[in-house]
Amino acid sequence: MLKDKRIRIIIGHYGSGKSEFSINYAVKLAEMGRKVALADIDIVNMYFRSREKTREMEKLGIKVIASHINTPAVEVPSISAEVYGPLQDKSYDFVIDVGGDQVGARALGRYVDYFKEGEYDMFFVLNANRPETQTAQKAYEYMVKIQDVSRARITGIVNNTHLLKATGVEDVLRGQKLALEVQEKTGIPIRYISVMEELVPQLPKDLEGEILPIKLFLRDDWML
Predict the structure, then answer these.
(1) Where are the domains of the chain?
(2) What's the confidence (pLDDT) of residue 62?
């Protein structure tokens, strides 16, 4: 994680676990003593979003920037101008959780001047269980669309193949196989394998990419 660029953009299809990865990534940085900001600029998906854990994140010292305006009767999707703060303040390690399709990725366009080559990372969260990205060709096509719309380049792949709490080692390894195929097709390296903490000891030691043990912050204990 220390080798990643200061600005990390997290993208991925709906249900890929993008927001869960974003939160866990930000928490790991905070635990390392870094000054961390997490921005939720997902104005498309209204469920399981990173800003839902604002209080919990702030207790860990993470600055959370939400993509909504609370009014007495309704929640209005809106990207806060606060996003510019951590983009400009280089003392922050900045994690940006982006909407899960081309519409969501378009929100990145307004910040394109800050995404200088070599100064940011954009991680594509890949879940082999999502129909839209379950083959290397489909994943490739999706990645191309996101890059075109966002005007930013993907620099790393995250294998986050899961079945929520029913995830087994075989699911992670199946996702790793797909991630390797996407890596070969695109030339973009696997950067992380995102996996539930309890499964880590069961994984092979020679997997390509750094293993990132995660917790499920966005799903309460009663959820499957």
Answers:
(1) 7-214
(2) 95
Q: Which comes out higher in pLDDT, residue 218 or 12?
A: 12
Find, among 179, 209, 11, the residue nearest to 95 by Cα.
11
Considering the domain delimited by 7-214, tell me its CATH architecture.
Answer: 3-Layer(aba) Sandwich (3.40)
Residue type at position 203: L
Q: Looking at the predicted structure, is the pLDDT value of residue 162 above 90?
A: no
Give the separation between CA 69 and CA 22, rounded to whole angstroms: 21
What is the C-alpha separation between 162 and 218, in angstroms, rounded?
A: 14
Tokens describing residue 216: 């499920």
Token pair of 128 as six digits:
């082999």
Q: pLDDT tens, 117-130?
A: 899 999 999 999 99
d(CA 174, CA 82): 39
Tokens 């703060």, residue? Answer: 85
Spatial CB neighbours of 74, under 8 Å, sequence gap ≥ 6: none
